[in-house]
UniProtKB/TrEMBL annotation:
Is required not only for elongation of protein synthesis but also for the initiation of all mRNA translation through initiator tRNA(fMet) aminoacylation. It comes from Proteiniphilum saccharofermentans. This is Methionine--tRNA ligase. The keyword tRNA-binding applies. Homodimer.
Length: 680
């Protein structure tokens, strides 16, 4: 029998405050965390959803340095943007704070000091790269060099982003500091380490034996770490941005961000509930659940529990339902490459459509493996499911009631066998959705909620009240009463998933007091109850809207390719007198047409200043409307030996420049010159 708890504390991974939130973050962490919190609140349970921005660490200092501002400027900007985006999207944090707050610095310092005083750390001296010009130790990301695996000359000290290999700074060939450009030297430095090897035995029992119910991807990753053997992990680093290490002799050292950040869950709870935060963190009757992405599994399942256990007074997480990654249009989401759908941009470009994105991200949730978001699927799910199933059913039930019963709930008469079957089937939804939500299968839970709308559509289609109304109004009343009760049930079951739409349905049926315990009941709307004013719940998304988003991504990809483009190597050196033999001139295009029965060739007739000359060029694919070139000036090689092609004599070569994407552009002077002018 599973353990019963009095309350649930939900944490969601702290987004890094060096950029906006994107759909990968939402699908992996924040939408499922919000669904779970809304569900528990709807049941009347005591629950907290804790969030906040992670504002320390190297990427923030790098971004600040690149922009010529302070790290505080960076985190202030993105914390504000992230918090506002979450609020507009309907993520119901009880608090959304930050790790630069005074209460967090105090909490993190005290936590470290408690472990330090209990002798839970080991001190180790090691050699690390030091920039003598900048006068500081270098974090991994402040060191670049040549990757020993693929030869990429811009690999970082922790990873080569070209081949994806994890690295150590000492692995790099020809390392250099990104601060000064100089070659760093090795210098000794002292740090404090959390000896995870001391905790391995109880972690193995706690995870592998006591929590076999954890998701297979989480359990499997934890087992891999434990089977490899845990090693001490540094909890401090040499940096001037972060929470200072609170012991003597630690000048210039801060708490490592992985140690500092999860303590943010505690400090944010203290900020929210200064007088009774401890019951949420130190009472065994509190259920602690961490929502995270797969890249955070080791920190939340092994490292943070070891920290809590070492401190001695905190509860440990009951579950860590981590998700895998969401890709975008079959490519990995990347902040640095701007390959993402950003939440704040979505909210601007799709006003009032928060629930569509919530629905699609839940339907494609990467719960057990990486999944993919595409704009075509976004459109299809909206048009074929939200509009055609859920919206269609609610609209039909309300419009028919308005038409036949003056917008009042009609009385239910004698039930047919089909009525009873439909009611019984609808009554099963609560248990199935509950099971899936409580086992963190949000995708399946939402699917079951949508099946209730499918059931409603089938019931109306089979019962045909618009036909029966011609001869049997009492039977019509019963059909529509059942349809309206299903509508009320839909308002309940979709509230965790589609909160904005659920609120609209409640307005349509003119009722507010519907809790989770009402789900499955068919007396939610009494006879004679006046319904509210209805409207379309969802609207179709047209092709041009989606094409605009796809084009936006294509433009991003093109810009990335351009920024990463490397020109072809320079050809072998030639003598100047060889170059001098080339006679490059400017001609004016008098005629230009495609050569018949060829795909590639264009025939140019040029005024070369002395005569008219014909030149054939294989650029037809790049100029589908060759007549547009008539009157233009182009550069050509005038003294190339004539060559017969397709029965035509070509007297020279027209010069073109090839772009990174393979497209060609004719080379021409920037201002008008006389035909025959030489390029010198």
């Amino acid at each position: 029998m599973s353990k019963q708890f009095k309350r649930t504390l939900i944490t969601s991974a702290l987004p890094y405050a060096n950029g906006p939130v994107h759909i990968g973050h939402l699908a992996g962490v924040y939408v499922p965390a919000d669904i779970y919190a809304r569900y528990l609140r709807l049941k009347g349970e005591e629950v907290l959803l804790i969030g906040g921005s992670d504002e320390h660490g190297i990427p923030i200092t790098i971004k600040a340095r690149n922009e010529g501002v302070t790290p505080q400027d960076i985190v202030d900007r993105y914390h504000t943007l992230i918090k506002k985006s979450f609020e507009e999207f309907g993520i119901t944090f009880d608090i959304y704070s930050r790790t630069t707050s005074d209460i967090h610095k105090e909490t993190a310092s005290n936590f470290f000091r408690t472990l330090y005083d209990k002798d839970e750390f080991s001190e180790q001296e090691s050699e690390q790269y030091y920039d003598e010009e900048a006068g500081q130790f270098l974090a991994d990301r402040y060191i670049t060099g040549t990757c020993p695996h693929c030869g990429n000359e811009k690999a970082y000290g922790d990873q080569c982003e070209q081949c994806g290999t994890s690295l150590s700074p000492s692995d790099l060939i020809n390392p250099k500091s990104t601060l000064s450009g100089s070659k760093p030297v090795m210098r000794k430095t002292k740090h404090w380490y959390l000896p995870l090897d001391r905790h391995e035995a109880w972690l193995r029992q706690w995870i592998l034996e006591d929590h076999k119910e954890w998701k297979t991807n989480v359990y499997g990753q934890c087992k891999s770490w434990l089977d490899l053997g845990l090693q001490p992990r540094a909890v401090s680093r040499d940096l001037d941005w972060g929470v200072p290490v609170p012991v003597e002799g630690a000048d210039g050292k801060v708490l490592y961000v992985w140690f500092d950040a999860p303590i943010g869950y505690i400090s944010n709870t203290k900020e929210l509930l200064p007088d009774n935060w401890e019951k949420w963190w130190k009472d065994e009757e509190t259920k602690l659940v961490h929502f995270i992405g797969k890249d955070n599994i080791v920190f939340h399942c092994i490292v943070f529990p070891a920290m809590l256990k070492a401190e001695g007074s905190f509860i440990l997480p009951e579950n860590v339902p981590a998700n895998e990654f969401l890709n975008l249009e079959n490519d990995k989401i990347s902040t640095s490459r701007n390959w993402a759908v950003w939440l704040h941009e979505y909210l601007e470009e799709f006003p009032g459509k928060q629930d569509i994105l919530r629905y699609v991200l839940t339907a494609n949730a990467p719960e057990t493996k990486d999944n993919d978001f595409t704009w075509k699927d976004f459109q299809a799910r909206n048009n074929n499911e939200l509009v055609a199933v859920l919206g269609n059913f609610v609209n039909r039930a309300l419009v028919l009631t308005q038409k036949y019963f003056d917008n009042k709930v009609p009385a239910s008469g004698e039930l047919t066998e089909y009525d009873r079957e439909t009611i019984a089937e609808a009554g099963k939804v609560k248990a199935v959705v509950e099971y899936n939500l409580e086992s963190y299968h949000f995708r399946e839970a939402q699917k079951e909620a949508m099946n209730l709308a499918r059931l409603g559509n089938k019931y109306l289609a089979d019962s045909e009240p618009w036909k029966i109304a011609k001869t049997d109004m009492e039977r019509t009343a019963t059909i529509l009463n059942i349809a309206l009760q299903i509508t009320a049930n839909l308002a309940i079951v979709f509230e965790p998933f589609l909160p904005f739409s659920s609120a609209k349905i409640k307005t349509f049926i003119n009722t507010e007091n519907l809790g989770w315990n009402d789900l499955g009941k068919f007396n939610l709307l009494p006879e004679g109850h006046t319904l509210g004013e209805s409207a379309l719940l969802f609207e179709k998304i047209e092709d041009e809207v989606i094409e605009k988003q796809i084009q936006k991504l294509l433009d991003t990809k093109k810009a990335n390719e351009a920024s990463e483009h490397k020109a072809n190597p320079i050809k072998e050196v030639i003598q100047f007198d060889i170059f001098e033999k080339l006679d490059i001139r400017v001609g004016r295009v008098l005629e230009c047409e495609k050569v018949p029965k060829t795909d590639k060739l264009l025939r140019f007739l040029l005024d070369d200043g002395l005569k008219k000359r014909t030149i054939l060029s294989g650029i037809a694919a790049h100029y589908p409307n060759p007549q547009e070139l008539i009157g233009k000036q182009v550069c050509f090689i005038a003294n190339l030996e004539p060559r017969k092609m397709r029965g035509l004599l070509s007297e020279g070569m027209i010069l073109s420049a090839e772009n990174a994407d393979g497209s060609l552009s004719l080379v021409a002077p920037t201002k008008e010159v006389l035909p025959g002018s030489q390029v010198v």
